Amino acid sequence: MTSPQMLLMNGLLAQAAPDYAKPVSSLSPGYFEVLEQNSHIVYPALAVLTLVIIAAGILQAWRTQDLDGLQKNEFKRAIVNELRRNISGMPGDMLAKAVGLDRLKTNRLLEQMQQEGMVVSHTNSQRLTVWRVRGALPDPNVRRY
């Protein structure tokens, strides 16, 4: 079975094997060794950095949603004027459209104004919260005999 062709093939294969060079990878084993040796420092540092970035993003979003004092007072004045025009009260959505402010910000302002005692609210039979200026109508809860 040892034919001259087989011997020639074996000789060619033997010559080709040592010339083969492994391609250079973009990932060096030294990089992984550094990570494995310093994992007690690297991974907690990455976790702390991630938490700091998340906290900074939350604080930034929180600050941008708040109105400054002057704008808040102007919108409060506009809300009171609108509620004085509609003495029986208005829902928060209609107030937001009339004042030109976002619905959520308007509701936040209305709740703050209610804590300050400027406006009062009640929920009607359609489960809609209606806001009105305090003292505009007699309180429905107070019964006079």
Question: Could you give a quick summary of the protein structure above?
Answer:
Helices cover 63% and strands 8% of the residues. By secondary structure, it is mainly alpha-helical. Strands 1-3-2 form a 3-stranded antiparallel beta sheet.
Q: Please compute the radius of gyration using only Cα atoms.
A: 37 Å
Structural class: mainly alpha
Strand order of the largest sheet: 1-3-2
Low-confidence stretches: none
User: Per DSSP, what share of the residues sits in E-state strands of 2 or more residues?
Assistant: 5-15%
Helix content: 55-70%
Give the number of DSSP strands.
3
Shape verdict: elongated
Notes on the protein architecture:
With 145 residues, the chain is mainly α. 63% of the residues lie in helices and 8% in strands. The protein has helices at 4-19, 29-37, 39-65, 69-85, 92-99, 103-116; strands at 90-91, 119-123, 129-133. Strand 2 (119-123) and strand 3 form a beta hairpin. Helix 4 packs across helix 6 (103-116) and helix 5 crosses helix 6 (103-116). The longest helix has 27 residues, at 39-65. It is elongated. The termini are far apart. The mean pLDDT is 80.
Task: Label this structure with key terms.
single chain; 145 residues; mainly alpha; three-stranded antiparallel beta sheet; 6 helices
